[in-house]
TrEMBL record:
This is DUF2516 family protein. Residues 103-120 have a biased composition (Low complexity). The chain crosses the membrane at residues 6-26, 47-80. The keyword Zinc does not apply. Pfam families: DUF2516. Coiled coil: none annotated. Keywords: Membrane, Transmembrane, Transmembrane helix. Residues 92-120 are annotated as: Disordered. The lineage of its organism: Bacteria, Bacillati, Actinomycetota, Actinomycetes, Kitasatosporales. It comes from Actinacidiphila cocklensis. InterPro entries: DUF2516 (IPR019662).
């Protein structure tokens, strides 16, 4: 009975990781090719192949082997490094994030209370 429950939990984790990799693959497919080059990340085809293979590995291999672990690492690298860089280059950030980042708010010498002019 315990082994059945463990296998059920592993199946749920496997499905969750498969959906995570599939989301990353679809997200990578939706961005333009030139956004990857502008963000200095590998090209779009590279990430589509890597993420597609990761999704297939997570679907067909048991979760406790080393291939899905490598796939999870690749998907996490895409999600935390490549995706934000490509989204920033593409201009797909929300308005609140743009305001918080301070885009178009002034010159680079502005301090927290206004422009810094060097006088004490």
């Amino acid at each position: 009975m315990l082994t059945t429950q463990i296998l059920g939990v592993q199946a749920l984790i496997s499905w969750g990781l498969f959906l995570f990799a599939t989301f990353a693959f679809v997200d990578a497919a939706l961005h333009r090719e030139d956004a990857y080059r502008a963000a200095s990340k590998n090209n779009k085809g590279f990430w589509l192949i890597i993420l597609g293979v990761c999704a297939l590995v997570m679907k067909f291999f048991p979760i406790m082997t080393f291939l899905p672990v490598i796939g999870v690492v690749a998907v996490i690298v895409y999600m935390v490094d490549v995706r934000p860089a490509v989204r920033e280059v593409s201009g797909r950030r929300g308005g609140a994030a743009r305001r918080l980042r301070g885009r178009n708010s002034g010159s680079s010498s502005d301090g927290p209370y206004g422009p810094y002019n060097g006088r004490r």
